[in-house]
Design brief:
18 strands; about 10% helix; about 180 residues; alpha/beta; 5-stranded mixed beta sheet; 4-stranded parallel beta sheet; Udp-n-acetylmuramoylalanyl-d-glutamate--2,6- Diaminopimelate Ligase, Chain: A, domain 1; 2 helices
Amino acid sequence: MGSPDAVGIPLRQLAERCGAELAGDGDVVIDRVATLDSAGEGAIAFLSNSKYRGRLAGTRASAVIVAPGDAQATALPKLVTTNPYAAYARVAAILHPARAPLPGVHPTAVVAGSARVAPSAAIGAHAVIGERTRVGERAEVTRARPSGHARSCTAGRSSARTASVWRNRTDAGSRSRSSAA
């Protein structure tokens, strides 16, 4: 069984939505993605490197995503595409859509007094919003690292910031982007 957030979709619909060729039973319902080795009923796995072709025989996936040259290596229902990795990523996004964050400021977040946070923005746990920071409509700010924080910046409409931090260089007055990674 898939995760509680997953939605079951017939393989035929996944093929249409991903632009892949369907080979086999298009009515098989897929509810999650998995590796060839860990897949079970309801899962779709992918093979993007032919040196792992032997693992197709042992997979318990309900379907697989393969390149045209690997399509004959399994009788499983499949999506055939020139880029199995990209198709797998599209399928994962379809089956496991990102949740829209709930607007508001988490109780553990710290927001400076001079910061402005739009009512539809989401400020996550342990995030730090510094002085003169503006967080726009539907923006999401999450804590990426203990040292990461937003200071003197603007996060625009529907944006999300995690690992990168925008800082205002006070010595030169110009904006620079630095990575917290």
